[in-house]
Specification:
By secondary structure, the chain is an alpha+beta fold. Helix content is 18%, strand content 16%. The chain binds 2-oxoglutaric acid.
Amino acid sequence: MANNRSTDLPQPTRDLNTAIANLNEFGYCLVTDALSSVETDALRIRLIEQATAEKQKGLAFEDGGPQQNWGDFRDAEGQLRPQSFTEDGGGCNQRVWMLINKGEIFQTVLFKPTVRQLVEHVLGEHYLLSSHTANIAKPGGVSMDLHTDQWWMPTPTRRDRSPLPIGSITRARFDQDENGLSNMVSPAVVVNVLWMLDDFSAKNGGTRLVPGSHLTGRQPDKELDQDVETVVAEGPAGTALVIDGRIWHGTGANVSENSRFAVITTFCGPQFRPQENFTVGTSLEVLEDASPDLLALLGFKIWNAYGRIESPLADFIQPGQTSLGEMCPE
Ligand SMILES: O=C(O)CCC(=O)C(=O)O
């Protein structure tokens, strides 16, 4: 993949309007000093401690190895195969899940005003946290396949066509018309934020992107798009890379000597199922101190009667709340 960086492509900026224009046109933007150096260092230290402990205890989740595939995938003969993973399989990317429970420092990134304004620009005033994780791209890794972060989003279709039923969509089997093209483009329903805890470069596996691909109306195809040009999101530690959920992207190959650390925070529209189940999985300790904003992000706020347990008129559901259950008149 070529790195055809042009000066017209998004550069790190502090200016919200420039960032919004970049996001609209190219599908991504880079926010300078989204994190202070103190915050970046603290996040990096906590992440290394957590990742090291998970690895030592045999609980690390590593993907990106040669035999590891997310969801259903197509093999070399084009056959659809089920997902294949090993929990501690020595893949090139160590993931750390559910950062919400893994140190207060990880919560701080959720409340950065510029980034939240960018999320709001794309998703509107209501949205959910979909996942809050880290990706440690280790040296020796290979480039991740290009993908979008809303591969599950049904595409607009024609009246005379029978689309793939939405529950049959997988990472390797999404609905596209006969030509793999569409004049229609689904809206962005996901925004992903990659918080750089190291300087990102082509050498250390900086995220690769296809500028403008968010408006193609389709998912990248491994064969059809194998020669597509990508650019690397470069920036100093503390930069936030904010991407439209439709943009084609993936972790680059880390050919440096050191691991590349990033926190990845994904937001989605309130209609969609988050990747991490925060209403069940968030620790009570975190919930006890959570602000209404955090509770809303975690899915405890009712949206147009969705996400309720009993009354659709309530604002929030309570952690641990269950429905009334079977009752009989006295
Ligand atoms: O770590 C990166 O640079 C990108 C990660 C990514 O695309 C993913 O986790 O799906």
